[in-house]
């Protein structure tokens, strides 16, 4: 049996991420994996979207300015550097965990690496900090390679972990993904998709849960994009056991 600590989209909320990792006994106070994590008794699954802050306020804090100006090249570079610094710290943690931390590829992660799609916040603020053509700073090659190697899904004892949803189409961040409303609405309009896809249980991010982690017991899935609430999902899994609880700090 393993204990899985499932964490929703990060989007630059590094203090919240580290609080969760420490509170769940996955990280030491010194940002190192605990023995329980290194040994594989604990597993951590992060639903992805490590990059791109969620709003202007978070960008302003990152660049150390009262207001964030996405047209200011210095602001873009500072926003990029702030994220790159934290990405390296998290990369070190993941690599020290001996394969027991899985970070799932999110659409924002892929966009930052490939630059194929231009993404923005709900308020219309565009994420240009990793776009050199707009004055930003590209991700260093080693970080880009690390992120580019993230899996699109992880399965433990029949429990499916992915960024946006249970179907294969929701794991490919292409034109169909960005124009298909199902990627944001399936969890309440088509909750039967998890069972139809053959999963014992599903755990997904991508869609912000304003009231905190949402669990649909009837249809066997959890929506965990709630790191802003410092919440995470704890699971005890084996082929015979599937227990879970929502933890809040």
What does this structure look like?
The protein has one domain: Metallo-dependent phosphatases (Purple Acid Phosphatase, chain A, domain 2, 4-Layer Sandwich), CATH 3.60.21. It is 32% helix and 18% strand. The chain has helices at residues 14-23, 35-38, 56-63, 73-96, 107-114, 141-148, 175-179, 182-189, 193-196, and strands spanning 2-7, 42-46, 101-103, 153-156, 159-162, 201-204, 214-216, 221-223, 231-237, 242-248. The strands form two sheets. The chain has a five-stranded mixed sheet with strand order 3-2-1-9-10. A five-stranded mixed sheet has the order 4-5-6-8-7, with no helix packed on it. A hairpin with a 4-residue loop joins strand 7 and strand 8 (221-223). The two termini are 25 Å apart. The model has no long low-confidence stretch (mean pLDDT 97).
